[in-house]
Design brief:
five-stranded mixed sheet; 11 helices; single chain; kinase activity; EC 2.7.13.3; 399 residues; ATP-binding; alpha+beta; 10% strand; transferase; Heat Shock Protein 90
Amino acid sequence: MRRSSRSPLRLVADVAVSLVVGLYLVALVMDEVVPRAGPLVILGMIAGAAQGVALWWRRSHPVPVMVIALAGGALVHFLAPQGIFPFAGLVALGSLAAVRPPRVSLPALAALLALTALNFLTASSEEAQFAMVFPVVAWALGEVVRNRRVAIDQESRRAVSEEQARIARELHDVIAHSVSVIVVQAAAADDVFDERPDQARAALRSIEAAGRDALGELRRLLAVVRPGEGEESTPGPGLDRLGELVEPFRAAGLRVAVRSEGIGADGALPSGIDLSAYRIVQEALTNTLRHAGARRAEVTVRAAAGVLELDILDDGRGSGGGDTPGIEGSGDGGAGHGTAGMRDGGAGHGIAGMRDGGAGHGIAGMRERAAMLGGTLDAGPLPGGGFRVRARLPLGASR
């Protein structure tokens, strides 16, 4: 750790610890050794002062500081056995245990206990036993600090990972939806460019609108990733914008009916649920547009008994054909008509798009959104054809 990174309070504490420990050890050696005089006084003072100075680096270089504290502590104890407590070693051990795992700190604890055990040769048994407790306490305190730091770091990493996953889901939903609309509309414009230029122009206008919406959503997401660039982040879309959401699908030829039950105009939903519900509907309709031989889709949003229910049906043809019982008037014609007029095989399994790897990821993303809010999501083909996505999100969820 660089000195410049230390807070003023920590700086004062580090200076105080180094000075107090160093001066105490020097005074202890002088008090014990002076009566005998000789060069041992100088040697002991150097050992005491070295331990105090070394403690200044105990956070950045805990292992070397521990070695100095053990070596200097052994010399000071030899010269002044009445000191009993290896103060420098206790401080160094606590700092070492706070930043290094037990495989490093436990050997240091054993070495300090061995040093403290020398008191059994020079002090009473009661004093020696009392002194043996302190290295264990110092190690335990350091280990508590280390575990707390590890827990905080893991929580921070988890929060970052969740945020990255959330942004990835948002990007997937925005890009998949907009690109799907653009591809379908571009194909439609190409088909009628010569015979129906008015329809081609309408398709191009829809492409422009989808592109603008995608750019707006991407700017909003980038504002979250890179905050503080002078642009305030706007709230994410919610169920109040379902009308805007389905317009590009209708322009692409998919007849979408939206029904809302139990949600008042002034009844705002929790922001997390509102955004997730919007994204689930968006992803389901996008998969219908991309992969299903569907001409009609029906979206039902219902709030009752503290639960928000989402029900999305389409009349896409499964491999066995047949009409969708859930949507009236959908069983006329082949899977290649309507919105599905896609040249990559429109007879997919409704919203699921099971033959396309991307759709599987979309359903997994929808399930993950629901699970994060404590809800559930079921998706699968209907017996008579078509596909259904049903989600239940508890309105008590706050994330």
